[in-house]
Amino acid sequence: MATGPRAPAAEAVTTGRLDALVDAVQTNCDIADARHAADLPLCIYLLQMREFYRWEHGLTFGAAIDRGALGAWLAHREARWAELEAQDFVPLPWGGARFDPLDAPLLNAELAPLGLAYGAGWSGVEHPAFFLAQLRFQHERDDGLQLQVCGREHARGLAAPPAALLGGQTIVLRREALARWLWEKFETFSLRRADGPFKAFADAYGLHDPDDFVAALPRMVAEQSETLLLHELGEHRAGEWLEPGWAAMRLALDTRRTELQVRAVRDQLADLEVTLPTLISRRAETALHFWFANYDGVRERLYPSLVRGYAAWQAGDGGRALLDATKAGARHFRGLARQILLLHARHPADATQAIDRLLMAPESVCGEFRTRSGR
After folding, report:
1. In this predicted structure, what is the pLDDT of residue 332?
2. Quick check: 120 and 112 in contact, CB under 8 A?
3. C-beta neighbour count of 308 within 10 angstroms
4. pTM: predicted TM-score of the whole model, two decimal places
């Protein structure tokens, strides 16, 4: 990962000013959660709420949670959401001024010199997400993109994406969010250590119990931050030819299923064109295991045979089949993305049904790829 000068310590900020800002950002996080937490499948909702409880109470990874306390907290949280759901987002107080909560660049110009980073973006159509964290460092990359690396988080929502491309020009990496995401995956895996990509990942780091996890965490965060960075670079590359039409198309969608499918198409482009080819060239074994441990849902449905390339890499082919698969997939999803944009151009106000039919059709699935040996 590229490095740069560290930001000044956030302790330079007076407690009162910081507390007021934290309260406002957390209120907006709670409003966003009130509107959208119900969209999550129940099992994912409960897992995220348990980890959210740990974060809010400053508990360590693996700390036992009293069921009674958790239940009372959950009831209180849901009651608060019921009160907030219809409220507007609140302005953010700082330096005698009040900032629009969606205008992150303007507020960050004030916060960055003090070692703070504020994030405001979209995790889905009409689903804003906010956070406030310590800024570990930021710098401008050679490609002109701004990189922000964040540490301890002062305010966050239920969902905490560990990386994001904000405004098309700023890549944000949230190290604490990544650490908690890694922990969630490990905790779930520990219940039944089934074979598969995550077991290969855990074995590579020697993860057998929570103590092993904590010992390996700095290395895991550093290495998997590189993978997240590559994905966001892939997002930026995809956006160079998809935008502005792609953003306009997403805003026109009116069903969650179609929005998730459209997002998966762009994710495939980012990873097939940038993330996976780079990881293969770097021989980044743990990163490849972790990437495939998270390859599921709509993405896997759209390209199920990609896992054959991963299996061939595990069997020792040096990544040749996987690289062939990324090239075949990139061609397929570029074509699919063009069809999506064309449907929106033809029916700008009512494209959801047409796009949904396209992405649910068998032709949207990337089929078997041919390796260089012809198999």
Report:
1. 97
2. no
3. 15
4. 0.90
